[in-house]
Amino acid sequence: MAIEVNPVWRGSPQHRLVTIGDSLTHGFQSGAIFNTDLSYPAIIAHELGWGESFRYPSYNGHGGLPLNIELLLRDLKDRFGPNLDGWEVPLALFHGRQFMDEVEDYWERGPGTVVPQLTSINHNLAVYGWDLRDVLDKTAKTCLQDIGVPRDDWLSQVTQDNGDRAALRVLPSAAADQSLTLLDAAARLGDERDSDPQHGIETLIVFLGANNALQAVTQLKVVWSDTGYDDLHGKRPYTVWTPAHFRAELGAVANRVRQIKARHVIWCTVPHVTIAPVARGVATKTGLGSRYFPYYTRPWISDREFNPRQDPHITGQQAEDVDLAIDLYNAAIVDEVERARRAGADWYLMDTAGLMDRLASRRYIEDPLARPPWWQPYPLPAQLQALLPEPNSRFLASNGNQRTDGGLFSLDGVHPTTIGYGIVAQELITVMRRAGVEFRQADGSVRADPVTVDFSRLIRRDTLINNPPGNLTSGLDILGWADQTLDLLRRTLCFRT
User: Fold this and answer.
1) Which pLDDT value is given to residue 497?
2) Pick from 194, 202, 346: which is nearest to 267 by CA?
3) What is the distance between the alpha carbons of residues 200 and 14, in angstroms, rounded to a whole number?
4) Is pLDDT above 70 for 248?
5) Greater confidence, 218 or 484?
6) Which Gene3D superfamilies match (predicted)?
7) How many of the other CB atoms lie within 10 Å of CB of 83?
8) pTM for the model
9) What is the pLDDT of residue 56?
């Protein structure tokens, strides 16, 4: 931004990394929050040499919350093989519902109902499904109030109030701290100053705003915000915030972030939600050099089968309108960072929207005429380039033995795979190094530049890359079947309904 800031630091903040965000920061993947040790904040903490001290919530039971699509597909594969024969479909449907019922029982009536009484505040302060208003107002107390009496409904087997249940493992939940928001919790960490007399936090990352537009593609429904957008319950019907409403909410969050005692603050822009393969563009684009397809529907509905009169979809014009709104969201984020730097704060911007655009296969990589003047392909790290095929932003596909397409997005078509989170971590590390943050080896020695993510470690941990479910065929038939019969996407991604 060409706005120089030259702060003088003393000592070392007690908390080297704190993050505030939604599912992308929480570590959500394939319809569930489970591998929180592989969220991008945890990856950064590992590279900082601070992984053992970084605190994050855990969700170990039955594959996490609300429903682990990968685990469900592997379970179906073990019982019915790589393909479902016609006579097996009723059995698979029954088994799928039984699997979901077991998950529901664990979190609603079983061990998952026991909320850890946290003695320390988490460093990863993120909850899937949360938007700007949630971060401003939600607390452990409001989440407990909103969790209703469980209903064991055989036709709607998904953990009830799963987002609130997940939040209780993130927010301070001890009796004395149940009224703290995520922003309050971060402020508490900032006040825990040790050798640095001014800051308890070295780097604070704020990655919010995606859920102010994401429901447009997860629900395939565009409902612009109106009266009540700034109320926890009044906002529920809306899937996209108007730019004016977003700017107002963002301003309130930014004012609270200014009060948190952090040396460096990094804000992330909001990705264009139509990049995610959960909404696949149908047929050919609307014109030469256009970024948009005439319709967007589920990735397992082929062009030949798609019928706009009966299949869920949004139009190309609606997709463009949502993306234009996100551009204005990001302009508001830029304005907040610029204003803070002019006031002397050491704030930075990480352009997540630009990063995802540079990885967009169907929008730009495969259509040179649609590329804006600034666009350049994102160079994947060497370890990822060596994978066959090279990972891309298409929906994950397999031939029954190995991955044949995709690799950057998990099985919900919205959230990254582990290596995808690694790319986000790498870009944030680059910003942190620009801010002068030291990354250290396990022995405490300072790492030399360039500081790079250990992608070999992430590839070993990424089961969707090295061992995708054997029933995930290139035709995505099993996911389409699961969505139609088990209402899979609505249950795992429509967090407010």
Assistant:
1) 36
2) 346
3) 5
4) yes
5) 218
6) SGNH hydrolase
7) 13
8) 0.96
9) 97
Residues 6+ apart with CB under 8 A from 365: 359, 377, 392
The pair of structure tokens assigned to 180 is: 């703290």
Work out the angle between the directed axes of helices 477-486 and 69-80 (0-180°, nearest 10): 110
Q: Express each pLDDT in 89-106 by its tens digit.
A: 888 888 888 898 999 999
Query: For 477, phi and psi rounded to 5 degrees?
Result: -60, -40
Identity of the amino acid at 308: P
Per-residue pLDDT for 340 more than 80? yes
Taking only the tens place, the pLDDT of each residue in 291-325 is 999 999 998 898 999 999 999 999 999 999 999 99
Residue 452's nearest CA partner among 401, 380, 387, 360 is: 380
Q: Which CATH class is domain 15-493?
A: alpha beta
pLDDT for 16-54, tens place per residue? 999 999 999 999 999 999 999 999 999 999 999 999 999
Distance CA 164, CA 139 (A): 9
Q: What is the mean pLDDT of residues 121-146?
A: 97
Residue ranges covered by each domain of the chain: 15-493
**281: how many CB neighbours lie within 10 A of its CB?**
22
- Residue 77, token pair as written in the block: 């594969």
